[in-house]
Amino acid sequence: MAEVSQEKLLLQEEINNLSAQMREIAAAIFAEPELGYQEFKSSARLADFLESCNFQVERGLLNMPTAFHATFGSGEGPHVAFLAEFDALPNLGHACGHNLFGTASCAAAVALSRHLPAGTVHVFGTPAEEGNVRDAGGKVPMTDAGLFDKMDAVIAAHAEGRTILKQQLISRANLEMDFKGKAAHAAGAPEQGINAMDAAALAVMGINSLRQHMTRDVRIHGLLTDTGTSINTIPEFARLRYGVRARKPETLNNAIERVVNCARCCAQALGCQFSYRHSAHPYYTMRHNMPLLEDFAANLDLLGESYIKEVPSSYSTDMGNVSFKAPTIHPYISIGGAHLVGHTPAFAEASNSEGGFKGMLVAAKAMSMTGYDVLTSEELRRSIRTAFETLDDLD
């Protein structure tokens, strides 16, 4: 193992000094889980922590009440951003560990700010990463607004059963497709009705038939969520909620078009009106910046942490959108053991355990040390930028 520099030992010591406060914040967020765009207490806890550590904090970013942007530094020189998530899941609470790793991102920034060699440290509080609320994906409007364009590196970590540098995340869209027919008595005057539920059911069958014509990276899955409530009344409304996933954004867009066209034709065939919308922002695949990720791995080595280099995956996250605008990494840190699977009660339990708190500290240390490397090494920044501008790992 390479020798740890004095500067990185100081960063580790800062995280150790912050550890009690980090545990308190993470446990408090865990105890009061909040869904996307409703994370008022969770967001405030992190923003208040940063403000108490001399960061300038802008709250309510881009008219998202729980989003924030915190900065420390002159605004000149290189820029490093840490992204903090803090939303929870319905019924399961923090079964994704956002309470831990949102806290870790903020602590990494604070530690780095106390030994800032040059440049500026940013923290973005990013709401609604979980795709279970309307217009989910708080990082997408931030990305579209250009907030990450000047960053030399964007760093975040996520909870997992194992520590993994790189998961091949895929693009994802959530669709709501509405069918509007005409109500009528199902026995007395069926000829006067237009059955929206039948149109939606026909669309389900049509969409199922599309699967054999899709590339193997495409995933299509959905539900019939709204329709009539009386068997004596022809349903005048039905809604399909579908997820569509694919490796490349362009493949995703093609699959969306085919799914929507199929549903629209089924609606027309039965005389229904049809409309659709994206119920969440589309999430793009990750463009992993390898020089930055290799530097993060080297810092895990300095911490004595083992890791897996790469695993296949069908997960999706709005971090992918950020990676198209700035050099980005999104490694996964163990919070317990390989048996843990996200979005389960066991994972939620681990997110408030000693294993979870250990993973939070590991992530904070590795992120702060990686941020330090970016700010101090022009050669690393040049390698990161070159890789970003030439990256094409989406085949």
Sheet/helix structural class? alpha/beta
Number of helices: 11
Head-to-tail CA distance between termini:
35 Å
Q: Rg to the nearest angstrom?
A: 23 Å
The CATH class designation of the largest domain is Alpha Beta
CATH structural architecture of the largest domain:
3-Layer(aba) Sandwich
- What is the mean predicted local confidence, pLDDT? 95
Unreliable stretches: none
Percent range for β-strand residues: 15-25%
* Annotation, overall tally of beta strands: 14
How would you write the strand order of the largest sheet?
1-2-4-3-5-13
Q: Estimate the global geometry from the Cα principal axes.
A: elongated
Q: What helical percentage do the residues reach? A: 25-40%
CATH superfamily name of the largest domain? Answer: Zn peptidases
Provide a descriptive summary of the structure in words.
By secondary structure, the chain is α/β, with parallel strands linked by helices. The protein folds into 2 domains: 6-167 and 287-390, Aminopeptidase, CATH 3.40.630.10; 171-278, Alpha-Beta Plaits (2-Layer Sandwich), CATH 3.30.70. It is built from 11 helices and 14 strands. It has helices at 6-31, 40-52, 98-113, 139-144, 196-210, 249-269, 290-302, 319-323, 345-350, 354-376, 378-390; strands at 56-59, 68-73, 79-84, 120-125, 153-155, 158-160, 164-168, 171-180, 219-226, 237-246, 273-278, 308-312, 328-329, 332-334. Strands 1-2-4-3-5-13 form a 6-stranded mixed β-sheet. Strands 9-10-8-11 form a 4-stranded antiparallel β-sheet, with helices on one face. The longest helix has 26 residues, at 6-31. The chain is elongated. The relative contact order is 0.18.
